[in-house]
Amino acid sequence: MSLCCIPFSVAWSAAGPVAAAQVPVIVEAAARQHIARWAENAGLVEPQFGITVVPGTRPLTGCAGPVTAQGAETRLPARMRFVAVCAGNNGWRYEFIVRAQVSARIVVMASDLAPGKVLADEDVLLERHDISSITDSIGDPGEVVGMSGKRGLRAGEVLRRAVLTAPTLVKRGQPVVIVARHEQIEVSMAGDALDSGARGDAVRVRNANGTVIRARVAGAGTVTPLTAPATANSPSE
Questions:
Q1: pLDDT digit string (tens) for 39-70?
Q2: Which of 68, 93, 158, 161 could form a disulfide with 13 if both were Cys (CB 3.0 to 4.6 A apart)?
Q3: d(CA 207, CA 180)
């Protein structure tokens, strides 16, 4: 789960006439729906949030027509910008700062870990934290197991994608095992890696017959075919 951005904007409308005091309520409803949808799409674990609407300094008036509120800048829940628009000939446009306090159960370190050491199941746990200003927290421990820290990691530290790296499991020139599966049938053969890659990366592999194929790194020294075999002299390779 990443909070790098909220890639959609939810519009909330209210039919007119709308009193001035109702406009912040409409903005809050739009922001609440926005955060709720984002939390669901991001896969946050047990999310909780509160919304505070901060009006601008310009006087706010009522609207005879419908009012629509929509997010204009929503990169960080801690400080978003929403715009309310009053339709009609005497309409107006008014900006609000909206602050959302969001918490969820996210991945943290259970113990200290030296730089470069691979994370195991017992190294991480889920704890509730405020993530209103965190753009790259992680909600699934399974995402970090097998990765390592770019620096030393401390017990209790919130794990962020920026401090993690996927270890290289296949190195160029290394012998690999090519494992192909179809339904209940599994076939394996030897090969040589032509590229280096981490888990999930696509690499070129030359199999025992000399044919170059595209394969995905599945584990240490293990790959699975991606596409039909290509010849070793294929210009695309």
A1: 888 788 899 999 999 988 889 999 988 999 99
A2: 68
A3: 12
